[in-house]
Design a protein that fits this description.
The protein has about 250 residues and is α+β, with helices and mostly antiparallel strands. It contains nine helices and eight strands. A hairpin with a 5-residue loop joins β7 and β8. About 30% of the residues are buried. This is IclR family transcriptional regulator.
Amino acid sequence: MAILSAFRPTDGDLSLAELARRCGLPKPTVHRLVRQLGTYGAVEISPRGVRLGMNLFEIGQLAARPRTLREAATPHLADLQEATGETVHLAVADGEDVVYVQKLESRRAPAVGSRVGGRMPAYCTAVGKVLLAHAPAEQIEALLSRPLRRRTPRTTVAPGLLTRELQRIRDTGIAEEHEESTVGIACVASPVLDDGGAAVAAVSITARVGVRTDRLAPAVRTAALGISRSLRHTVVAVPARDGAGATR
């Protein structure tokens, strides 16, 4: 996993020496593991170096939660993108980050560094803040107990300010971001809720800074509610487990 995780979104082929440097492993160890990974199609080995293999993509498509969400969300995201002409995202929480599981990009919208499968810190994104607002209190407390990195001059890092913002998001069902993760963009997001009221995902619109996010909020909210309803008619992606660990 250290070897597979060493690849970055912009990487093509990496040399064994570079992989060893990134992983902090001896080069002979990396060479042995790469050859083993190659036999399973997890990496491809060429004269230029090592790249991630197609088999990883195939396995990734089997991940139940993103697949179920994408199937339920696709028509609603398409309607949202067509109605607003802006870039839309679908994201899920993963620890203190968000992972984007779908992105429909608008040609007129500003370029955004997000990508399907990419992640961002939750505290500085609209999708992340709406998911944090519905997270357990101990998770929020743990996040706010240590310093947060300021990604732009407008990133909210003060625990008191962020706590009040998360409470406001819980009350309204809408989160906003104005140049907190990326200079030049604004976002508005709303949660996708399961039958029990837990946030299983978040939907957002990303546009140029200065856009009236209050005018986009109703459309985002409508899309999120539509996805929530659609999920109720699909197979549950992550089975609930009882205290003994048995699937219910």
